[in-house]
């Protein structure tokens, strides 16, 4: 399947299956480490960065495949009939900054609009706030993280 973003690659997004939990956890830790967090800090977040089989079964999770290799994913929570929360959007570090995050986000936004969702929310990694602003998300509150003095922008997009 050819695509408009990456003409020399077969790039597709497919629904994740529970057996992919280990690779999705690996992508999450690798992607989070992109921002320069130490192993000690990443360990503080270990539980919330670990993707389990149960998580995939209970939440909408989609993988990004490049030439049949999983390189990223996103997941969201259906909070109501009109409100979804983007819970994760991660790539292996070597794929960050090459347009794949945009490809994932555009798929999520398209899926949301088709489903008739009125609003999307997310808790952004502060380093990624600008990424979400480009898609029209706005900060409506700051949420203190597990790291003292560090706050996550809570963001919202209304359709």
In short:
Helices cover 31% and strands 32% of the residues. By secondary structure, the protein is of the alpha+beta class.
Task: Give structural notes.
The chain is of the alpha+beta class. Helices cover 31% and strands 32% of the residues. It has helices spanning 21-33, 39-44, 46-49, 53-58, 100-114, 129-133; strands at residues 11-15, 60-66, 69-78, 83-91, 119-123, 138-144, 151-158. Strand 6 (138-144) and strand 7 form a beta hairpin. The model has no long low-confidence stretch (mean pLDDT 94).
- Tell me the radius of gyration: 15 Å
What is the distance, rounded to the nearest whole angstrom, between the alpha carbons of the first and last residues?
30 Å
Report low-confidence residues grouped into runs of 5 or more.
none
Structural class: alpha+beta
Relative strand content: 25-35%
Q: What is the overall pLDDT average?
A: 94
Shape field: globular
Percent in helix? 25-40%
**How is the main sheet built?**
7 strands, mixed
Number of helices: 6
């Amino acid at each position: 399947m050819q695509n408009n973003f990456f003409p020399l690659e077969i790039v597709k997004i497919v629904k994740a299956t529970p057996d992919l939990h280990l690779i999705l956890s690996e992508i999450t830790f690798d992607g989070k480490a992109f921002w320069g967090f130490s192993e000690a800090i990443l360990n503080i977040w270990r539980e919330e960065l670990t993707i389990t089989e149960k998580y995939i079964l209970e939440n909408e999770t989609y993988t990004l495949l490049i030439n049949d290799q999983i390189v990223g994913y996103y997941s969201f929570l259906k909070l109501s009939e009109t409100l979804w929360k983007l819970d994760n959007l991660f790539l292996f570090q070597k794929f960050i900054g090459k347009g794949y995050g945009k490809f994932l986000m555009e798929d999520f936004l398209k899926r949301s609009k088709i489903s008739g969702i009125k609003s999307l929310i997310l808790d952004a990694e502060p380093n990624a706030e600008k990424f979400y602003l480009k898609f029209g998300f706005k900060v409506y509150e700051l949420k203190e993280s597990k790291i003292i003095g560090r706050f996550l922008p809570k963001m919202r997009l209304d359709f």
